[in-house]
Amino acid sequence: MEIGLVELSRMQFAMTAMYHFLFVPLTLGLSILVAIMETVYVMTNRPIWRQMTKFWGTLFGINFVLGVATGITMEFQFGMNWSYYSHYVGDIFGAPLAIEGLMAFFLEATFVGLFFFGWDKLTKVQHAVVAWLVAIGSNFSALWILIANGWMQNPVGAEFNPDTMRMEMTSFFDVVFNEVAQAKFVHTVSAGYVTASVFVLGVSALYLLQDRHKDLARRSIAVASAFGLASALSVVVLGDESGYSASHTQKMKLAAIEAMWETHPAPAPFTAIGFPDQEARETHYAVEIPWVMGLIGTRSLTHEVPGINDLVAEAEDLIREGLIAYDALMTIREQRDATPPEVRATFEAHSDALGYAFLLKRYVDDPRDATDTQIAMAADDTVPGVAPLFWAFRVMVGLGFSFIAVMLYFFWRANFRNMQFPRWSLYAAVAIIPTPWLAAELGWFVAEFGRQPWTVDGVLPTALSASHLSIADLLITLAGFVTFYSVLFVIEMSLMVKYIRKGPFLDVAETQDWQARHEGRLRGDTGAPIATLAE
User: Fold this and answer.
1) Terminal Cα-to-Cα distance of the chain (whole angstroms)
2) Which residues cross the membrane (predicted)?
């Protein structure tokens, strides 16, 4: 593949986005786990839960800071690398991002300071409220960002204005309650909860292997396994919901993930494994499970899931329809207020297909001059890379089911085997710490790579979205980002390892005070002085 302006812009954005997404899942999950731990501390008044809150909260804080730094950089890229995209759909895409900054980001940024510096300033209940506000802010932030991204996947609540040559919002309600956005939000945050649960589980298992901080480790495993089991189950259920949503909003993405070249009679089978050949448009050595794809994609046994070849033919028809809209648009642009009503009526009738005409810009300056061969080539461009999507999806799903098994096992040992964990299981828990990040990155890859060749599905091709930068500018900034982010990654890992080695903060005086009261209650001698009981 020839590397040009658009490819380098995509590479740079993919690098920053996927690096930023290293921090997002852990931030989402740890914020909730820390709030849960502090709630238990408030309810039980046991210092161990305060120590757990402080320890895991410190790791959350390190991760939070790095996530904020990389997220801000990524948002600036919309204006720098994707200026035409920002101009074309900024009225819609910018609204959720603005709300995210004004509502969610300021909420979590304000209260995260109170969380770390308010231990001696706030009551226990007040501090627990702060912890929950930090968690709510983090998840609200994800909500608004995924609403913006969900609109790119399923552009509802907006229409193209031929007089301004831009997309404009027609229904904020439709944008916010976009079915793709809602499915993406719950699926993404659940994946974040799993990531944090596996992280807490793995670090706690390491402490047990080292025979350190065993009280904290066992309680942390109990919380993480319960929370992680519920989250892992929800990831699978909500992933199924995303598949059903894609069956009528992003049919080509679903067909590419499945490597379904031809439309099968209903209900379609699911290809468990195989080797997609995009050039030959077939999948070699495919192992199929009957009916499963039909049930996932249509929730029925009677509706078909369209294959790639039929969708390419449909795209060719949409390109030809889009040319009608494009021709009318050029007349409106030239004649402005003098445009005949019938021309505007023609544009309105075919405007939904306008984006498909823009696919021809890759081959010809004026889409109306495109040949039949170029139209066929543009239709073929609507097929994303099938093999990468096919395998990324299957590895992600396989990891998702493995998390259910891991969390179920540790939940069972924590609740029904007196928190006794075989050493092999502890080694396994440590070994799988990186795997939820792999699953999360693969999920993000499937969502974004599967949308190609569109920046906004069916509306704006990626090839038209990029800024007019030089190749040298992109190479220099890409190298700069790689260098800078590599340094940040080393700092992040160094700090995380440092504080994990250091272990939980021990509030010795408070712990001794609570232990003395507890021992006194056991002896029924609560009236004795604490100092005497401590002796």
Assistant:
1) 75
2) 20-43, 55-72, 92-117, 129-152, 190-209, 221-239, 391-412, 424-447, 467-491
DSSP state at residue 268: P
pLDDT in tens, 382-401: 999 999 999 999 999 999 99
| Chain center to CA of 194 | 13
* Mean pLDDT lowest among 112-126, 358-372, 374-388: 112-126
Gap between the Cα atoms of 32 and 131, Å rounded: 8
CA-CA distance, 496 to 501, in Å (whole number)? Answer: 9
Cα separation, 258 vs 450, in Å, equals 11
DSSP 269: P
Alpha helices in 210-250 (DSSP H): 214-249
How big is the CA angle at 269 (ends 266 and 272), to the nearest 5 degrees? 165
Phi first, then psi, for residue 407 (nearest 5°) are -65, -35
pLDDT digits (tens, 9 = 90+) for 323-341: 999 999 999 999 988 889 9
Q: Are 94 and 21 in contact (CB under 8 A)?
A: no
Angstrom distance (rounded) from CA 98 to CA 427? 44
Which amino acid is present at 292?
A: V
pLDDT at 522 over 70: no
Kindly write down the DSSP assignment for every residue of 95-138, as one continuous string: HHHHHIIIIIIHHHHHHHHHHHH-TTTS-HHHHHHHHHHHHHHH
d(C-alpha 298, C-alpha 292), whole Å: 10
Q: In this structure, are residues 368 and 323 in contact, taking their beta carbons and an 8 Å threshold?
A: yes
SS3 content of the chain, % helix, strand, coil (to 5): 75, 5, 20
Q: Which two tokens stand for residue 474?
A: 């992109």
- pLDDT (tens digit, 9 = 90+) per residue, 195-233? 999 999 999 999 999 999 999 999 999 999 999 999 999
Peptide bond into 453 cis (omega under 30): yes
Which residues partner with 493 through β-bridges?
none
Using the structure block, give the residue that is written with the tokens 């004004």.
Answer: 102
Q: How far apart are CA 292 and CA 285, in angstroms?
A: 18
Find, among 146, 206, 204, 195, the residue nearest to 175 by Cα.
146
